[in-house]
Design goal:
homodimer, 461 residues, alpha+beta, five-stranded antiparallel β-sheet, 18 strands
Chain lengths: 461, 461
C-alpha cells in the first residue's frame, strides 16, 4: 500500500499530470479481459523511457509492485494489479517513431494501438502481420508481451517473428537495447526474444523495432459448411498435408455454428454443424497466382464432403463471410452468460480427437463448450459456457479447465498458443514444465527483478 | 589439464569407446574453419543425453572446461578448445528421431549433418530452409548454436524461425526441455530461443524439434552482370522496394567477380564488374505463378543498367549459374593466400555506401577485399585478403577488421549476421552492446553455468 508520502514522491518524479489516484482511475485500470480485477493504489502514465526508469527505481527501492499495462485486452489477468501497487499504463507512449520503407522496418512506442499501426503501414503498401482478435484495441506493447498470434499465423507466424529489437527498462532502472534493426543478427544472446512473451515480468518495453513485409494485394476467401464438424477438421488437415499455405484456416465446431446461427440468423448456417473458413492471399493484384491453390482446396472440400460453399475475391463480400466467424465473441453468450476461454495449442493431427475429448469433458461436467480454432496451427479456443451465478456450475467449469489442460499436455500440446499464462493459467504451468525448467525461469526473473516488484506472480512460478 | 585419474574416471562414466586421447584425435578436434587452433586434453563423443549429463557433472565438479562441437565448420573459433579440457564432440548423436509429415515437424539429434536432414525431408516433399554454405558438412546442432542463416534467408528467415523445442543439458547436469512441438506456444519464457544462437555457452543441445514447410516445386534463376557493382546493389534494393520476395538475392562486388573470373574462366564474367543472382521459387510445379515477379525483376534489371543476363527454370542449368557464386570460397585465394572473413549485417539501404567504405578501409591498409552479400538481408561477407606470412600485412588485415566493425555499428549494423561471435569477434562485442546489456548476458551465463566450464570466453563477455 502506497502512503501519501510515496504518492507525493512519485508525483515529484514524473509530474502530477502523470499520476492518478481518483477512484474512477483506479477502477479503470483494475481489470483486463479475463474479468479478474483488483484496484491498484495508484496509476501512472509515463511519457518517456526516463519516466519509466524513475518509476521503476522508485518502486524497486520501496518494494512496491508495478503492473505494466497496455490496453487491458489480455485474456489471462496478466495486467491485473493483484497486490495493489502501481498500475503502469503505457498508453501515453503511443507514437510511431519511424517507418523505414526502404528497409521495411518500423520503430514504435509500446502504447500504440496495433490496428492504427497496421493501417498506417498499409497505406505505404506494407504489412505487419500479427493480428489478434483484439487488434483494434490492443497496444502493440501488449502484443509483444504475450507474443500474440491471430488469424493469419498459419502463413505469417507470430509477433516474435517480426520483432527485430527492443528498448526495455529493467526493474532496477537500466535502459537496455537488445537486438539490431537489421534482418539478421547473432551478436550476443537473443534477449529480444527472451523479452517477447515474458508478459511484463522481466522489464518494461519502451520501444519496439519490427520487420514489415509487402502487403498482400488480393485475397480469395472460401466459407464451407459441413454436416459434421469432424469433416471440417479433416478438410483442414488435408489442406495442410497437401502443402497448401492458406493465410487463414478457421474452424467452428457444432456449438459454435449453433451460436452463430442464433446470433446472426445467417441462412448459410441453417443445415451446418461445422464451418471452415479458408483464405489465400497474394502479392499480385489480380491474384491469378492463387488459381491452382484454390482449385486444390476445392477438390479437398468436395472429397471431404462439404455441404455448401461460398467464395469471393471481393473485399466487401469477404467481410460478410468473415462476419460468421467474427461474430463468435458475442455469439457464444447465446447459450450461457459466463465463459472460461482458453487457447490451447496441440499438434494439428490431434485436433479431431482433442475436440472430441473437450466435448466429453464439458458433457461430464454438465456444461456447454464452444470450440473454434486457428486450425492450421492446431490452436483451439475452448470456451466453457456456464452460469456464473450458479456456484456449482462455476465450479464445474473450472474443473473442466483443469481437465482440459491435463489432456492438452498429454497430447503433446501447450497451455497457451497466444494468450500467455498471466495469472489464470499459472496454477497449471507445472503440468507443462517441470521443476528444473521453472527453476531456471524463476532465476532469470530474479536476475532482472531482484526485488520481485514487476508483475509478481504472473507468467512463471 | 586433466590428469590420468580424471581420464580414467571419465572412461568409467561413459565407456572407453567414447573417450579418445591419441594425438591424432586431439589434433582432429583442435580447430574450426576460423583457423584458430588449440589442442583439447581429451575428446569424448557422448551417445546419449545421459552421457552428456555425466560428462558435464564430472566437468563442473572438477572445473574442467568443456568445448561442445559439431562438425567444426564454424567461422569464429566457437568450438576451439582454447584452454584444453574436454572436446565434447556431438557427432555420434546424429539420428533423425522422427519426421512427422502430418504435423510438418521433425525431431533430430544435434550431430546430424544438415544436408542429410534436408535431403531426407525433401524426399517427403518437405523443406527445412536454413542453408549455410557449410550445409553439406555442418551439424544441425552447430547451426542451432549460431542461429545459422544462408542463401535463402531473405524469403525464409533463419534457423531460429524453425526451432520449436529443444532438449538441453545444463553444465550442472539438468536435462531440460523447452518449447513445444506445436506451431505456437507462449507458455513460460522463450528459453528455446535463448539457447538458439548461444554458441554452446549455456547448455548442450541434445535434441531439436523443428518446423518443416512444403518444399518448393520450381525455381527461376536470373544471373545478371553489371559494369559497376553499385548498379548491382541498386538493382537489389529496387527489387526489395518493389515488394518482390526472391528466395535468393546474391551480390558479388568487382573484386569477387575478378576472382571468380580467374578461377572459373566463365565468359559471362568477361566484361563484368558486379554480379547479381536473383532467384524466385514456387510451390507450383510449373512455376506459372512466378511470371509477374520475373517480369518485374527484369524491368528493374533493364532500368538499372544490367549488362547481360542469363535465366533458367532448368535445375541443371541453375546449378551452372550458381557455380559462379558458389566458386567464391576457393576463388578468393586467387588474389592472396590468407583471408579474414567477416559477416556483418546492415540495414539494406546502407549497402552501397558501406561497400564503398569497406573498399576504402582495405585500400588504406594496402590490402585487397572481396565482398559478396546476401543482398536481400544486408548481410555482407567481407573477406580481407592478405599474405599471412607477411606480419605487416597481417597486422593491416586485423586493423581493417576492427575498422570494419566500428563502421558497421555506426551504420546501425551488427557484428554478425549468421556466423556468431565465437572467439574471434569477442573483442568487438562492446562496440555493439554496452556494459548494461553485456552484464545481464553474463549473469544469464552464470545462472546456467555457475562454474564457468562451458565454452568459456566465447560469444559474450
Amino acid at each position: 500500500m502506497l502512503d501519501s508520502g510515496d504518492i507525493s514522491d512519485l508525483i515529484s518524479l514524473v509530474g502530477k499530470d502523470r499520476v492518478f489516484s481518483a477512484p474512477e482511475d483506479l477502477v479503470a485500470y483494475s481489470y483486463d479481459a479475463s474479468r479478474a480485477q483488483n484496484l491498484p493504489d495508484i496509476v501512472t502514465t509515463p511519457g518517456s523511457s526516463e519516466d519509466v526508469q524513475k518509476i521503476l527505481r522508485f518502486a524497486s527501492e520501496r518494494r512496491i509492485p508495478v503492473y505494466p499495462r497496455g490496453s487491458g485486452t489480455g485474456m489471462t489477468g496478466g495486467s491485473v494489479p493483484e497486490q495493489g501497487g502501481i498500475a503502469l499504463v503505457m498508453t501515453s507512449m503511443n507514437r510511431i517513431l519511424d517507418i523505414d520503407s526502404r528497409n521495411l522496418t518500423a520503430r514504435v512506442q509500446p502504447g500504440l494501438i496495433l490496428h492504427e499501426f497496421k493501417e498506417t503501414v498499409k497505406k505505404q503498401g506494407l504489412f505487419y502481420p500479427p493480428d489478434p482478435a483484439s487488434a483494434k484495441f490492443a497496444s502493440i506493447g501488449g502484443t509483444v508481451a504475450v507474443n500474440a498470434g491471430g488469424l493469419n499465423s498459419v502463413k505469417y507466424g507470430v509477433t516474435r517473428d517480426y520483432v527485430l529489437s527492443l528498448e526495455a527498462v529493467t526493474p532496477i532502472g537500466d535502459i537496455l537495447r537488445f537486438g539490431a534493426s537489421t534482418m539478421k543478427s547473432v551478436t550476443g544472446y537473443d534477449m529480444t526474444r527472451l523479452l517477447v512473451g515474458s508478459e511484463g515480468t522481466l522489464a518494461i518495453i519502451t520501444e519496439i523495432t519490427v520487420k514489415l513485409i509487402p502487403h498482400p494485394r488480393s485475397r480469395f476467401t472460401i466459407l464451407a459448411s459441413f454436416t459434421d464438424d469432424q469433416d471440417a477438421l479433416n478438410t483442414a488437415q488435408q489442406i495442410m498435408e497437401k502443402g497448401l499455405i492458406p493465410c487463414a484456416l478457421e474452424f467452428m465446431d457444432e456449438t459454435a455454428v449453433h451460436c452463430a446461427r442464433i446470433y446472426s440468423g445467417h441462412p448459410f448456417l441453417n443445415h451446418a454443424a461445422g464451418v471452415l473458413l479458408i483464405e489465400f492471399d497474394s502479392l499480385q493484384e489480380n491474384g491469378m497466382d492463387l488459381r491452382q491453390d484454390i482449385s486444390r482446396a476445392k477438390e479437398v472440400l468436395a472429397s471431404c464432403g462439404a455441404l455448401e460453399t461460398r467464395e469471393t475475391a471481393d473485399p466487401k463480400e469477404r467481410e460478410e463471410l468473415w462476419e460468421i466467424r467474427k461474430c463468435l465473441s458475442p455469439a457464444v453468450y447465446e447459450i450461457a452468460p459466463s465463459k472460461l476461454n482458453e487457447d490451447i495449442c496441440i499438434p494439428r493431427s490431434e485436433m479431431i480427437s482433442v475436440i472430441q475429448e473437450i466435448k466429453t469433458i464439458a458433457r461430464n461436467h454438465g456444461i456447454n463448450v464452444v470450440n473454434f480454432a486457428h486450425a492450421g496451427d492446431g490452436n483451439i479456443h475452448v470456451n466453457f459456457m456456464y452460469d456464473g451465478k450458479n456456484p456449482e456450475q462455476a465450479d464445474h467449469a473450472h474443473r473442466a479447465v483443469e481437465e482440459l489442460f491435463r489432456m492438452t499436455v498429454k497430447r503433446r500440446g501447450t497451455l497457451s498458443g497466444e494468450h500467455g499464462i498471466g495469472r489464470t493459467k499459472l496454477p497449471f504451468l507445472s503440468l507443462e514444465y517441470g521443476e528444473g525448467e521453472r527453476k531456471i525461469m524463476r532465476e532469470i526473473k530474479k536476475l532482472f527483478d531482484p526485488e520481485g516488484i514487476l508483475n509478481p506472480n504472473k507468467s512463471i512460478m
